[in-house]
Protein 1
Amino acid sequence: MADMCMSGESLLHFLEPHGKTVQDRHQSTPRPAASGTMRVGLIWVRLMTKQLRIGLAGLGTVGASLVRLLQMHGAAIGARAGRPMAITAVSARDRKRDRGIDLSGLAWFDDAVALAGSADIDCFVELIGGDEGPAREAVEAALKSGKHVVTANKALLAKHGNALAALAEENGVHLAFEASAAGGIPIVKTMREALAGNRVTRLYGILNGTCNYILSRMEAEGLSFAECLADAQRLGYAEADPTFDIEGYDTAHKLALLTSLAFGTQVDADAIYVEGISAIAPLDLKMADDLGFRIKLLGVAERTRTGIEQRVHPTMVPRDSAIAQVMGVTNAVTIDADAVGELTLIGPGAGGDATASAVLADIADVAGTPPRPPFGWPVAQMELAERAPMQRHEGGYYVRLAVYDRPGAAAGIARHMAENDISLESILQRRSEAAALDPTGRSGAPVPVVLITYATSEGAVREAIRQIAEDGLIAEDAQVIRIERE
Amino acid sequence: MADMCMSGESLLHFLEPHGKTVQDRHQSTPRPAASGTMRVGLIWVRLMTKQLRIGLAGLGTVGASLVRLLQMHGAAIGARAGRPMAITAVSARDRKRDRGIDLSGLAWFDDAVALAGSADIDCFVELIGGDEGPAREAVEAALKSGKHVVTANKALLAKHGNALAALAEENGVHLAFEASAAGGIPIVKTMREALAGNRVTRLYGILNGTCNYILSRMEAEGLSFAECLADAQRLGYAEADPTFDIEGYDTAHKLALLTSLAFGTQVDADAIYVEGISAIAPLDLKMADDLGFRIKLLGVAERTRTGIEQRVHPTMVPRDSAIAQVMGVTNAVTIDADAVGELTLIGPGAGGDATASAVLADIADVAGTPPRPPFGWPVAQMELAERAPMQRHEGGYYVRLAVYDRPGAAAGIARHMAENDISLESILQRRSEAAALDPTGRSGAPVPVVLITYATSEGAVREAIRQIAEDGLIAEDAQVIRIERE
C-alpha cells in the first residue's frame, strides 16, 4: 500500500495548487456544487488509496454493534468500497465498562471533541446523542477540521441540520446520517439518490417503533394505552419517561430530515404540527377496524397548494395498505413521486445492529464516493419552505362524539356539519353500556357516534365540533383522527 | 463553465502520466479496486465539471419517459449530482414515428452501435432489449470505448453480466442496471450500497407483475388461471406469448442479478430452478387461504449448507407477511441479513415512468460518483457459487393429492410420509363434488387432501409422492407448493 500512498501524495503535490485556484476563483460565485467538486475530487483521489481511519464517539448499543460489525465485515466492506477502513480511535464516558467488544489497539479519548479534531482520523462517527453539548461541539469540530462525519443523531440534525450541512459543504466533506431516520431502512439514500429524478409529492411513515408497538398491542388485544405503554417499558421498547416517543417528538425529528430530502427545503422542525397517541382509546381502534382502517402514528410531509405541510399525528390508514401491515416496533416509509409512483420501505427502526448497518453504509459511502450535499441539494439552493398551516389541512376525518342519546341530537350534529360544508361518507353508532341498561333509550346517556367525512378542511371540522359542543349535544371532547389514503 | 473545463483539462495534463504510472504498476498485482481507483478518480475529477452527454438507444415506452423526465428534471438532477447532464443523441428503429416527445436538437443515429461508439457522448443508455444482437454489441462497444453504460436489460446481464462487468472494470466506467430488476424499486442500490455492511442470508421477491396480477385475480375472484391470463393480455399486462412471464423465466433473469449482488457470486442464471404458475388451481388458492397463506410466484436466493440456492416457483407465504400484501402488478423484495435483519421494498415493477426513474438514478450516479464494481464486488473477487441442488432444498411443503376415497387410503399416505421421515403439520380434507353426490362415501371418487409438512427435503417429498402414486392411491399428479416463512 505504501507506494500507492506515496504516488497519491506526489500526485497531490501537483494537484493542490490547481485545486486551490479553481476553488478560490469560485469562492465568490454562487456555484457551490461545481466549485466544491474540483477540490473535493482532488482530496478524494488522494484519499481513495489510503485506509479510512474512523474515530468513534459513543459506545452504547449502536457503538458496540458498529465495532463488532466492522471487525467482522471491515475487510469485505473495504474491498467493495475500493478503500480499506478501520476504527482507530474511540471515545466514551466510562473507559472501564465492559461492553463485550475488543477495543485493544484503539486509541482512547476521554473527550469526544478532542477525538473529533484529532489529526489521526479521517472520519468521525458521532453516536453520543443530544442536540447540544458534546455531540454538537464534536460534530462541528470534526467538520471544521475537514473530517467526514457520520451520525445517527436526529435531534442534532433536526435542530442544526442547515448549519451543519453548510459547514460540511464549505469543508468539502461528507455529513452522512442514514441512521438518523428509520434506523436500518435506507430511506436517506433512497430519497437523495434513488429518487434523484423524481418530484416528490408526499411522504409518510411509521417512524417510531414505541408508538407502533403500543398501537399494535392495543388493536390486537383490545388493551388500554396505559397497559400497553407499561408493557413497552417493561420490554425496553419505551423509556422511563416516554413523553418524547409517545407525544410524537421523536417522529417529528425524523420527519424534519425526510422533508428536506424530499422537497429540498431547509430543515424546519418548528413547522411541524405534532400530536401523540396518548389520547387513542381501544374504542377508536375497534371503530377503525369496523370501518376498514387501522390507526398508526404517521409523520406526513406533503406538497400542498398552500406550501409544504409537515404533520405528526395518529392517522387512519386503509387496512389493506402496505403501511397498515406494519406491526410492532417495525418502521415503514411510503413515498409518492411523479416518476416512480408509490414506493414503500419496511424495516427495523431501531436496534444496535440495524442502526449500525445504516452507519456502516454511510461509512462505505464516505470511503468510496466524493461528498454530496447532505440533504441532496446544494445548501445554497435549499430554501425555507412556505409552511402550510394545519387549519388549512384538507382531507378526510374520523370524528368520534359522545352524544347524549336524546331526540334531536342527531339532527343537531348533522346541521352543524352541513353548515360547515362537511359531507359525511359514513356514520357509525354503537350502543354504550349505559344505554344498553336502559331499554327505553331515553336516559340520555351518552352514546359513541363516529362520523367519517369526505375531504374537508381542519378548520371546518374544528368549527363544526365547537358548535356541536356549544349546543350541549356531546358529553366529552370529540376525538378527531385524520385519514390518510393511498 | 468554460474556465472550469480548461482548468479541468490543464489539471489532467499533469495528472494523466501519474494516473497511468499508478495504473500500470498495479496491472500485474491482483488489486482491481485499488488500481482502478486512482485512474478512475482522475477521469472523474476531469469530468465532474463538464456536462454529461447522454446517448440513448431505444425509444419505446421507457425511452420516451426518460426523454420527457430529463427535459423536466434535468437541471435539478444536475444540480444535485454536481454535474450538468443532457441527452445529446438518440437511436431507434423508426425515425419518423411520433412518440409524443421533442427530439429536436438531438443527433440521430440509425445504428445503436455507432451511437455507443460515438466520441460525442459520455454515457450510453441501452433500452433496446434482447440478450444478443444490437443491444449486446452496442453495450460492448460503449464500454470498450470508455463510455459509461446504463441499461434496463435484464436478459443481457443475466446472460453476459460477468463479462460485461469485467469490461466495465477494465475500462474504469460505470455499468449501471437499477432498472433491470424490479423496475422502480431501488433494489440494486440497496443491495450494493445500503447493505454494504451486511452479510445477506436470504433474498426473495415478487419480481414479475404479470404473474402477481394473475394470482391476485385468481385469489380475489376464484377465477381460473386461463381466465385471468386472458384479462392480463387484454389489459396489456401480459404479452401475446406469455410463456416468458408465466413460466418464471423473467423472474429468473432478475433473480440471477440480485443473487450476485447479495452474495458476491458470478451471475449464474443456469443454476436457477424455475417453475411457473400455470399449474396453480383456484382450489390451491382457496386451500392456502384456509391454512393462513397466500400463493405468490417468488424468486428466492438463499445461502444454504450445500451452497447458494436459486429458485423461482409458486410459493406459500404467511398471509400476514408484508410480501403477502403485495397485489396486482406491484413488485416487492425482502432481504434477510445479519445486521439489518429483515428489509422489504415494495414498488412498481414496470411502467415507462417508474422504469425511467431507475434509469435516471443510475445516470445521476454516473454523473456524480466514480465507477464502482457493477455487482458490488470487484470482478476478480466474484466466484462461481456452489450450486445447491433443488433435491436438497429443505423447507415446509404444501402437498395436494386427489385421493381415491377408499378405506385404507389415508393410512397408506400416512405410512409413505412416515417412511420418508416427513412429519405433517396439518392435514386438510375437502369433500369433492363427486363425493358429495355419494352419501355412502364409498364410491371411491377422488377427494382433495392437503398435507402441510414440517421442514423436510424436496427429495423426500418427491419420493413419498412417487410411492403413494405407485400404490394407486391418487387419481392425478400431486400438486406440490413450497412454503417460505419469514
Protein 2
Amino acid sequence: MSLRQKTYNLLEKDLSRSLANKLLGSFIIVLIVANVIAVILESHQAFGQQYAYGFYAFNVFSVVIFTIEYLARVWVCVEAPGADASQPIKTRLRYMFSAVALVDFLAIAPFYLTFFINIDLRYLRMLRMLRLLKLTHYFKGLDMFVCVLRKELPTIGAAIFTVMVLVVMSASIMYAIEHQAQPEVFGSIPSAMWWAVVTMTTVGYGDVVPVTVFGKFIAMFIMLLGVGIVALPAAMLAAKFGDELRLRKQQLEAEVDNALSDGYVSKSERADLDQLAEQLDLSRDDLEQLIKNRTLVLGTSITCPHCKKAIKLSRHSAAE
Amino acid sequence: MSLRQKTYNLLEKDLSRSLANKLLGSFIIVLIVANVIAVILESHQAFGQQYAYGFYAFNVFSVVIFTIEYLARVWVCVEAPGADASQPIKTRLRYMFSAVALVDFLAIAPFYLTFFINIDLRYLRMLRMLRLLKLTHYFKGLDMFVCVLRKELPTIGAAIFTVMVLVVMSASIMYAIEHQAQPEVFGSIPSAMWWAVVTMTTVGYGDVVPVTVFGKFIAMFIMLLGVGIVALPAAMLAAKFGDELRLRKQQLEAEVDNALSDGYVSKSERADLDQLAEQLDLSRDDLEQLIKNRTLVLGTSITCPHCKKAIKLSRHSAAE
Amino acid sequence: MSLRQKTYNLLEKDLSRSLANKLLGSFIIVLIVANVIAVILESHQAFGQQYAYGFYAFNVFSVVIFTIEYLARVWVCVEAPGADASQPIKTRLRYMFSAVALVDFLAIAPFYLTFFINIDLRYLRMLRMLRLLKLTHYFKGLDMFVCVLRKELPTIGAAIFTVMVLVVMSASIMYAIEHQAQPEVFGSIPSAMWWAVVTMTTVGYGDVVPVTVFGKFIAMFIMLLGVGIVALPAAMLAAKFGDELRLRKQQLEAEVDNALSDGYVSKSERADLDQLAEQLDLSRDDLEQLIKNRTLVLGTSITCPHCKKAIKLSRHSAAE
Amino acid sequence: MSLRQKTYNLLEKDLSRSLANKLLGSFIIVLIVANVIAVILESHQAFGQQYAYGFYAFNVFSVVIFTIEYLARVWVCVEAPGADASQPIKTRLRYMFSAVALVDFLAIAPFYLTFFINIDLRYLRMLRMLRLLKLTHYFKGLDMFVCVLRKELPTIGAAIFTVMVLVVMSASIMYAIEHQAQPEVFGSIPSAMWWAVVTMTTVGYGDVVPVTVFGKFIAMFIMLLGVGIVALPAAMLAAKFGDELRLRKQQLEAEVDNALSDGYVSKSERADLDQLAEQLDLSRDDLEQLIKNRTLVLGTSITCPHCKKAIKLSRHSAAE
C-alpha cells in the first residue's frame, strides 16, 4: 500500500474504522472546538490582551495543522473510490471546489490574507469562526437534514415568500399609520420593516412600539396573523422530516418483505438490511421492530396455484 | 394564428414553454420587485427627495407597462381554454372580476386615482405595495397552500374562535385586577386587550406589564395557556399539510398500483403518472421511489414448499 | 304537537333545520356578540359614562332575553331524545347542572346578584364576559378539539408536569444566583418564577433580566431548553389532531371497504357513509377521495376457493 | 410472607394495587409537593423569618420520612423480580447507584451535609428543590417521553449542533458590526452571544438591541432564520412522538391481526392485548377501535360471481 493510500485511509475513511483514523479525527475535532473557544475568549478585551501572545501562538499552530490537513486531503483525494486517478490535477482541482474542501480552505485562508491585506481584527475573528463549519466533516446526522431541506425548497419557498409579502405589507401599513406620531422610529418603510420583523418573529424587543390607537389595533391583527405564518415553515419542515422518515421506513419495509419472501431473514439478508438501515439513518431498533411486524403480517396462508395446497407464509415456512 | 392568440400564448401560457413567454414573465417579475424596492427606498425622506424625479419617472413607466399588460390580458382572456369566445364582452367582464385580474387592476388604479382625488403620499405608497401581489401570478407553490387553507377553514376557525375568547377573557380579568394600580395602561378593556395580544402571541414588548402580585400570578397562567393555544393553528395547519401530502401520495400510489397491475409501468402509463404527479405538486423523486416500493411489494416471488415451484406474488398471481 | 315540543324544536333542534330555529339562533348569537362589545366599550371611562343609561338599558334587555331563554331551555329539556319525561323535576335538575346549562346560568346570575351584594363594577364586567361562553352552543368544530384534549390528557399532563418542574427549578437557580445583585426583582422564589415563566414562554417583557455573568450564562441554557419544552405540548396536541383525523379516516375507510365488498357503493350505503363522515367531522371531499382510492386497491384478482376461477374485485364486478 | 416482602409490596408495587400501597404513595406525593411549596414560601424573606421555626420543623420532619423511605427502599430492593437475592450487598449497592435511588438520595443528602459544611441558605433551598424529582417515581407518562428522547438523540443532536453554530456565528457577526457603536453591550463575543440567544429563542428582552442600520439589517435575517431553526427541535420531537405512537399502534395491530386469525378475539387473547396496550402506553379506546377496524377489514365477505357462494376474505380464506 502506497503512502498516499495510507494517508487516505487515515484521513478520509469513516471514523469507526482504525484507531489511528479515530485518534486523528478526534484530535481535529478538539482543535476546531478549541479554536472557537479561543476566538470567543480573545474577544474579551482585557483577557485577550493579557494572553495575546498565547492566543497568537495557538492560532499559528492551528493554521499550520489545518494547512497540513488541507494539503494532505487535496493530495490524497485521487484515492477516493469514484475519483479519476489518471488525471490527478483535474481531479484535485475539482475536489478543491467541492463544498467540503472550500470550507477547509476558508478556515485557513484569512490567516494568510493578513500578510497582504490589513483586515480589521474584529472581522478577522468573524472569519476564524468559519472553522466551526469544518465540524460538518464529522456530523453524519446533518445529511438527512440537508436532504429534506433541498427536497422541500419549493414548499418552504412559498412560505418564505408569504412571510416576505407580509413583512413588506405590514411595514407599509404601520409606516402610513405611525409615521406622524413617531417620525423618529417609523421614519421610513425600512425602519417600519425592523418593527415588522421584530414583531412577527415574536422577538418583541420593545424598542419600537405603536402608540396610536389605530396603530395598536392593526398591530394586533398583524401579530396574530404573523405568529401563524412565521411559525409555518418550521412546522412544515418538521412535518416533512416525519414524512421523509416514513418514506425511508417504507423503503426498508419493502426490502424486509423481500428478505422475508422465503419465510425468514438469512444472515446475508440481515447484513444487507443492516447496511440499508444505516444508509437510511434508521436505528437498529426500528429495523428489529419492522422485521417482527412484517413477519406477523406475512403469517398468512395462501394457496399455491400449482398444487392447490395451503402455504403458511410464516417465519419457518422455508424450513418445513 | 391570430394576433390575439399569439398574445395569449405570450402572456398566459406557462412560464416553461417558449423563450418569448419566459422573457416577458421574467421582465414583469423584475419590474414588480423593482417597484417594491423603489417604494421602500423612496419612503426614506432624504433619499426620496433627492431622486424624486427619477422615482416619479420609474413609477409612470411601470404604470404604463402594467396598464398595457392589464389591457392585453383582458383582451386575450377570451382565448383561454374554458372561456366562451362567442360572448366576448361578458367573458371579459367576468375575467375582470376574477381574483388575478383584480390584483392587476389594484396595481395600477391608485395612480390614475391621484388625478381626481388627493391621496396622502404615505397611503399612496401603501397602495403601490399591492403590486407585490402580482407575483402570485408566477408562484405555483401557493396553490397547495391555499387549497389546504380552504379545506381546513372549519378547524382553523374553531382554533381562532378559542384564541379570540381567550384574548377577551384575559383582557377582562387583567383589566379588573390591574386597573387600580396602573390606570393609564389598563384604563379600559381595549387597552388590556393590547396587553393580552402582545403577551399571548409571546411578542412581549414590555410596554405594558402587570405590577401587582395577583396580576402577575394570573398573567403567568395566561402566558402558559396562551402559548399553547395561539401556537395551535399554525401547528395544525402544518399537520394538515402533511396529511394533504399523504393523501396525494396515496392517490398517486393507487394509480401506480393500477399501472403495475400488468407487472410493469409502460411508457404511456409513465407519462400519465408524471402528469398526475405534477398535478398533485409531488416531485419526480417521490414518484420514482413509489414505483420502486410498489414493485417490490407486488413483485416478490416465493417458492411453494409442496411442489417447489416459484410463485410470483403479483396482482394476478392467483389467476395464473 | 304540544307547545313544549314546539318550543323544544325552536330552541334545541340543530341550526340547519327550520327557518324560525335559524332566526332565533342567529338572534341570540348577535345578542351575545353585542353584549361582549358593549362590555368592552363601556369599560372606556369617558365613553361609558356618556352613554351609561344606554348601556344599562341594553344590559337589562339582554338579561331579560337570556333569562327567558334559560327558563325555556330548563322547561323543555324533558323533550330531549334521551330524557326521562316521567320524572320532570329530576330531569330538569340534572339538566341544570350540565355544562351548557351552567354556562347559561352564569351569563345571567351576576346581574341578579347585584340586587343583594355590592360587586365592584370592574369585576361585574368580567363576569358579564362569561356570556361569551354561550357561543359554544353554536360552535360544532369545538367537539373534536375537546375530544382530542380529553383523550390526550395523560400525555399533555406529563408535558405540563415537566414544564412546571422546569419553571420551579429555573426560578430556584436564578434566585440563588441573582438574589444578591438584584434583591428587588429576584427577592424570593415566587418573584424569580415570574422571570422564569416570562422567559420560558418567550414573552420576554424585559422588566426582569439577569445582570450577572453567571446568571446570563445559566439563563441562556434555560432559554434554549425552555423554548423546546414549553412548545412541546402545543406541537404534540397538533400531532394528536393529525392522529385523531387519521384514526377517523381509518374508521371511514373500513366502512367504505365494507360497502365496496360487493364491488360498488349502493345509494343506501352511500347515505350511511355520508352520515358517518359528518359524524366524524370529515369532509365530503375526503369521503369521495377515499372511495376512489379503495376501489382501485380492491381492483385485485383472487381465486374463489369453491370453483377455483379468478375474480376481479373491481368497481363493476357485481354487475358482471 | 416475610416483613421485607410486605414492605416491598407496600413501597414498590404499582399504585393501583392495595389500599395501603395507595395511601403511602399519596402521602409521599403530598409531602413532596408540600416541601416544594414550603421552600417557595420560605424564600419570601419576611414570611420566611416569621415562621422560621415552623419551616425548620417541617423540613426535619420531611427529611426523617424521606430517610426512612430511602433506607426501606434500599433494604427491600433485593425483593424486586429481577434482583439477585443471594448477593444482598452487591444488589443493594447496584440499586443505590440507579437513577431513582440517586434522586431519593439527593433529596435528603444536603440536609445531612449542613452538619459538616456551611452551605449558603439560598443554594441549600435550590438543592431542596431536587425533592421535586422524586415525583418521577409516580409519573408513568414520562416513560414514553424519555424513550422518544433517547431514541431521537442523534437527530435532535444535529438540530442542537446547528443551533449552536448559528448562535456562535450570529454573535461573531453582530459583535463585529455593533462593537464600535455599543462597546458596553457588544463588548465581546460572549456578550453578543447573550443577544443572539435572547433573540433567536424570540425571548427578546430588549436590554440589548442593535442600533446601526447594518446591524438591524443583519439582525432581521438572523431573526427570521433563527425562529425556524430554534423551533425545529421541538417540532421534530413532537413529530417523533406521533411516529412512536404510530409504531406502537402498528405493533398492537400486528398482535390484533394475530389474535383475529381464527376469526375472533378470545378472552385470553383479549387479556394479552390489554396487557400489551398498557405496556405500550396506548389507551383501552385505541385498542377497542383497532380491533373493530381490523375485524372489518379481515371479516369482509363477498359473493363469488361464478358460483354465487359467499367467500369470507379472512386470513386463511385461501386455505378453506
